[in-house]
Amino acid sequence: MKTYVTDELPLNLQEFISSYSKIYHQALVDTVNHRLKYPDYSKSELRTELQKTYQINARQANAIITDADGMNCSAKECRTNHIKQLEGKLKSATDWLKKKIKLLKDSKKFYHHKKWQNKKASPKLRLSCSLEHRRNTWQCIKFQIHHKKRYIAHLERQISHLKSAPIRVKIPKDCYAYFVGSKGELFGNQVCQFDGKVLQIRVPLILEPLYGEYVTAEIKSFSYGAEKVQTALGTPGESVSKSGVRTPIEYGVAMTYRFYYKDFRWFMAVSFELPAPKRVTLSRHYGCIGIDLNPDSIGWAYVAPDGNLKASGQILLHLSGKRRGQARAIIGNAVKELTTIALLYCAPIVGESLDFSRKQTTLRERGRRYARMLSNFAYSRFFSALSGRCFNLGIELIQVNPAYSSLIGLVKYARLYGLASDEAAGLVIARRAMRLSERLPRAITALLQVNCKRHVWHGWSQLNKKLSGMRRHHFYSTVSNWEPLVNNPDDEEKSRSSGKRQRAKGSAST
Predict the structure, then answer these.
(1) Does domain 284-438 have CATH number 3.30.420.10?
(2) 232 with 181: CB under 8 angstroms?
(3) Over the stretch 142-201, which tens digit does the pLDDT of each residue have?
(4) Could you give the CA distance from residue 119 to residue 112 in angstroms, rounded to a whole number?
(5) Alpha-carbon distance 22 to 28, whole Å?
(6) Fewer beta carbons within 10 Å, N or C terminal of the chain?
(7) Whose CA is closest to 169, among 77, 300, 268?
(8) Domain residues of the chain, as ranges?
(9) 168 and 231 in contact (C-beta within 8 Å)?
(10) Are the C-beta atoms of 404 and 459 separated by less than 8 Å?
């Protein structure tokens, strides 16, 4: 769905829209309240009531009902998402509270022991005091626990209220009006018809004494997209006659018109669905370009049809500390560079299908640094810009499951091809879109004793758990995946410590 806005409207059209918007606003308020109170009420009967009450035709009543239903659905969806977000915050806060209470309990148990100084194990929470704030660590933890309990109680009250409270819809003031289009009408709309130069609007019965049966006005050129609007208006269509034979007539796609008041002027916005352009990229089986988006860079990798790497690179993103317009320009340049690479190789672009709603609910407990990093991560903004440009250029955009993409790239391809972590992840994402399997190396399979009958992701899950506490980028570059034997990381640590002890004994004996 694309929307294009015109310049300032003529005076006669502004006067009519100003008068009609007041009637439209009052009818919209009554329709929203009626649809919330009686959701199963017949739409045709409601349309008849609106026609009799406000003296408007059926198409104008349909536009009002459609707008009201859209507002109600949006309000219900926002209420559901709000409750879901608050429940996620409540779960995160409850988990944090349980961990801190257990930490405090274990520390007290440790210090209550008479000979705790001689214990080999160290306490999880050390007893120390801050000279600046004159508080010890236990007092700080108790203070945090107290406020976290208050925060949890506030969330519980808020969730219970939202689940029982009625839905409320915010309706703008009488400064806009909708005319919903239809594919089976002349010029895509029956009430409001625009042929590219002259706009003609059917006046409701209540305003006919002032403006007549129709209001016509010459529309100036659009600020952008005038050619696409003209193309949509001139697109031929087909209608079905009574005999069932399709006959071509002169009508285009459904054209929806929205008039709104801004900066003391009235504007007209035209919305319609653009036909999908011809695809210029080849099928995914002939090669893909995988991208891995990070807060500071984008790693891409082009995979040939045989599954091997042919080209790779990085696009830097410096978004921290930038204003909204600057960040939008940086993302736009990155999207332009990616689409240029896709057109060069005639390959589709493959990205990750990510959802940060669950992570955003834990920002309060994860710290400021993590919250700042996740807030600066412009994932939705980047993929909305990328999808729009790919649609206009005819480039196929594919989204895949991102599970273990970074781990697989670091273990299998980082050292093999000499890639950075985001480039290796992009390679894995491209291969996943091409339906290529990613099996564990034989040495790691023997080390973990993976069951070959299970899915390959089961082995990567076991390896992820094994390396969760010691994952560093230099570790993957030092361990080769084609060696016949890979030592266990725990055994390596033991061998290093035993070597240190033997060297210490040798120096002491000398």
Answers:
(1) yes
(2) no
(3) 999 999 999 999 999 999 999 999 999 988 887 888 888 887 777 788 888 887 788 889
(4) 12
(5) 10
(6) C
(7) 77
(8) 284-438, 439-499
(9) no
(10) no
